[in-house]
Amino acid sequence: MRLENWDSKLQLIIEETINNEKWVLGKNDCLTFPLKCIETITGIKVFDNKYKSLKQIKNILNKMRSKDTLGVALKVFEKYNFKQIDISRVQKGDVLYYRTDRADFGGTLGVCIGESVMFNWSESINLKKKEDCLIAWRVEWKFIIKLYMI
To answer: What is the chain's alpha carbon radius of gyration, rounded to the nearest angstrom?
Structure first.
């Protein structure tokens, strides 16, 4: 499930990131951008760890028992039941993983903005083709009710 008017709210986040916000680690970076988008689309804050330095990021990775960005994404998205989808089925608002040696932790996360995927790297905003990404997740909140027999 996506929130009402998610598309227009997502567009505002994209425009703010491109036009107004300066890149700042922990505030407006390659992780916080997709997280803002997820929260805008679903109303759910899926990751609340604060960081201002690479050392703090490494501590978070250790605490989460992950070695890289992909490991964190896999754990967080599984926890919130965001399903991996085939790259060919990606739609606006979905999150994708792109492996790059330019990133400090093996890769980075971006958001599908239509025909391209937007990444917020320290040098600039980068657009990549969906097909260049390795993994994609459908961003929609699913209510799961578990019944237990006693």
So the answer is: 15
**Distance of alpha carbon 43 from alpha carbon 79, whole angstroms:** 15
Lowest-confidence segment of 18-27, 71-80, 127-136 by average pLDDT: 18-27
For residue 34, give the amino acid letter: P
Residue 132's contacts (CB-CB under 8 Å, 6 or more residues apart) are 98, 117
Match 């567009």 to its residue by tokens.
11
Q: What does pTM read for this prediction?
A: 0.89
Q: Return the C-alpha torsion angle 144, 69, 63, 145, nearest 10.
A: 0
**Do residues 31 and 40 make contact, with C-beta atoms less than 8 angstroms apart?**
no
Mean pLDDT for all residues in the chain:
90
Q: DSSP letter string over 46-105? A: ------SSHHHHHHHHHHTT-SSHHHHHHHHHHHTTPPEE-GGG--TT-EEEEE-TTSTT
Would you state the torsion angle of the CA atoms of residues 44, 46, 48, 49, taken in this order, to the nearest 10 degrees?
-170
